[in-house]
Design brief:
Distance between the termini: 41 Å
CATH class: Mainly Beta
CATH topology: Immunoglobulin-like
Largest sheet: 8 strands, antiparallel
CATH architecture: Sandwich
Number of strands: 8
Oligomer: single chain
Length: about 160
C-alpha cells in the first residue's frame, strides 16, 4: 500500500514537473518563399520569427526579422499545416498598403495577448495557450505579405524551440 502511494505521488510529481517545464515556452519559425502556397521563388525574401510566452500563456513577446523584404505589408499567425493556406488568427504587423522595405530586424519586443486573436473559431483555438499547443502539432505558421505577393512572400511553420 505504501509503495503504491509512493508510486502515485512520484507519477503526480513527474506530470506536474512536465507541465511546469512547458510554461513559458519559446517558439521559432524560419520563413522562406518556397514554403508559400504556391511557392514564391522570385523574391528572395526570408525571415525569422521568435516568440516567448509567459508562464500562463496569456502573453507572448516576439520579434520578427525580414531579409530582402520589398514593400512588405503585414505579418500574421495563420492556422494551417505546412503547404496548406489557413485563416489569419493573430496580426503581428500591418497593414500598410504601400508596404515597408525591410532588410533585417523589423519588429522587436512586441507583445501579443489573447485579446489580439482575431479569429477564435479555427481548429487552433481561442487562446494563446491553445495556439501554442496547436503549434506543437504543426498547425500554426507565420506569414509575411508584400505588395507584389499579397498572399504571402515568406512563410514558416511555428515550432517549439
Amino acid at each position: 500500500m505504501i509503495a503504491r502511494l509512493i508510486a502515485i505521488g512520484t507519477a503526480t510529481l513527474i506530470l506536474t514537473s512536465a507541465s511546469v517545464a512547458r510554461a513559458g515556452d519559446t517558439f521559432k519559425a524560419e520563413l522562406t518563399g518556397d514554403q508559400e502556397n504556391p511557392p514564391v521563388t522570385d523574391q528572395g525574401t526570408t525571415g525569422k520569427f521568435e516568440i516567448q510566452f509567459n508562464r500562463d500563456f496569456s502573453k507572448g513577446e516576439y520579434k520578427l526579422v525580414v531579409n530582402k523584404g520589398v514593400r512588405v505589408t503585414q505579418g500574421h499567425f495563420h492556422c494551417g499545416v505546412a503547404g496548406v493556406n489557413g485563416s489569419i488568427i493573430v496580426f503581428l504587423a500591418g497593414f500598410q498598403a504601400n508596404g515597408w522595405d525591410v532588410d533585417g530586424q523589423w519588429i522587436t519586443n512586441a507583445t501579443v495577448t489573447n485579446d489580439n486573436i482575431v479569429l477564435k473559431t479555427t481548429p487552433c483555438g481561442d487562446t494563446l495557450a491553445k495556439i501554442a499547443d496547436a503549434a506543437r502539432h504543426g498547425m500554426v505558421y507565420v506569414n509575411v505579405h508584400s505588395v507584389h505577393n499579397p498572399g504571402g512572400v515568406a512563410r514558416g511553420q511555428l515550432e517549439e524551440d
